[in-house]
Design brief:
By secondary structure, the protein is mainly beta. It contains no helices and ten strands. A ten-stranded antiparallel β-sheet has the order 6-5-4-3-2-1-10-9-8-7, with no helix packed on it. A hairpin with a 2-residue loop joins strand 7 and strand 8. The protein is globular and about 45 Å long.
Length: about 140
């Protein structure tokens, strides 16, 4: 895997009211491996709201995946299979306390790519608000 990578993040949120919300971003970033964990660093912009970047750090460890966001959105979300975690999610509009219940995490590695799939549910104030899927594809960029 090269240090320069192309990252595609796609997500699906299904609310209890059967509403479906999807998102997908593709951007360039940086990959490195340190202390048996893989790190992917990239920026994302929420075009409809602000032209302020959110710096993302995705850490893939043997027992968990951590997504840290700093900028327009500030949060640290921890996904650990069959485990409930809590994350504070802050934007310029306010702060929410999310409950995250991760059902499964799948990671597939090849010489020049990584695919990550996470299935989880979100809750606010102990009320389930959506079932979610996050898919991340990391591909080496040729020098």
């Amino acid at each position: 895997m090269t240090n320069e990578v192309l990252i595609t993040v796609s997500g699906l949120h299904l609310s209890n009211e059967s509403e479906q919300n999807t998102l997908e971003i593709t951007t360039r970033g940086t990959y490195y491996n340190r202390n048996s964990s893989e790190y992917i660093i990239y920026d994302e912009y929420i075009d409809d709201i602000a032209n302020i970047p959110t710096n993302n750090m995705l850490k893939i460890a043997s027992d968990a995946v951590v997504l840290r966001k700093k900028g327009f959105i500030n949060t640290t979300m921890t996904f650990k299979e069959s485990t409930d975690t809590v994350a504070t999610y802050t934007t310029i509009f306010g702060t929410l306390l999310f409950g995250i219940s991760t059902s499964d995490i799948y990671v597939s590695r090849k010489d020049d790519s990584i695919e990550l799939n996470i299935n989880y549910s979100l809750s606010v104030n102990n009320d389930d608000i959506s079932n979610c899927t996050m898919n991340v594809k990391i591909e080496s960029v040729a020098d």
